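Hi support team,

I submitted a single chain yesterday and got back a structure, but I'm not sure I'm reading the token output correctly. Could someone confirm the output below corresponds to the sequence I sent? I've pasted both exactly as they appear in my results page.

Thanks,
R.
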Amino acid sequence: MGEDLHLARRYGPSMRLLAIGDNCIDHYVDLGRRFPGGNALNVAVYSKQHHGAHADYVGVVGNDENGAYLLSQVAAAGLDTTHITVVEGATAVTEIRLEGGERVFAGYSEGVQAWARLPLDGIPPPSSYDVAHFTIWGWGREHIPNLREQVGVLSCDFSDQLKHPGTSIMEHLDYSFFSGSHLAGDEARRAALDLSKRTRGVVVVTLGARGSLAYDGERFTMGAAEPVEVVDTLGAGDAFIAAFLYGRERGDSLGEALARGHRWAARVCSRLGAWGG
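Hi R., thanks for writing in. Yes, this is the structure output for that exact sequence:
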């Protein structure tokens, strides 16, 4: 992907983003508090709140109290809830513990996301968006090939799942995001090189406090994490993705987009919970 891919949009209207995939309740078990969350939902909310983008989210929640709470939080964040399907069952819940500001996943109940399926006609008109963002969790990834010619940019967050069967969709993507904070030394570079064989797009690996790297099939670009007094790292990766995508749509080089991502990730680290709550 050339560095000039998005330069024509530098002075255009703000990004129009569609996020499809997971949501959950982030339950802080030691604090007895809950927040709305999930990568796809977080990226949509951050895109709107931090960058003024037009953002829509497509997801599924249960008809329980957690589902009602999540819908109320999405509406309070200024997003349309029309594309969130309510089905009988439990909303996904992630149990969180904080250890020195670092979020630790203590448990996860997938709820209705374990079996719910997104019909193709449940997706808003794809041509209305500049970017469609998916996640390795939740629903909707099976429709990515159908959207390739309808949306300018397709991206997906694969979390730390470097070998997940779902990485097969990378052949259709412009940006593939991975969490590599567990990778030591040159492992992240080697992983990016290996993953790049599956895609025509850019592979981005975030490395926590060690920064990030992007590989475009020809060269590596490195990003430096910004210093911050960490309260909670939950949502930092999602803020990074939202800012990175926004930057690229505005004409950022890869280096500029990585820096923008780290800047917003640091801001999210300074508060408890991803957003709302």
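A quick pointer for reading it: Confidence is low (pLDDT under 50) at residues 1-12. Let us know if anything else looks off.

Best,
Support desk
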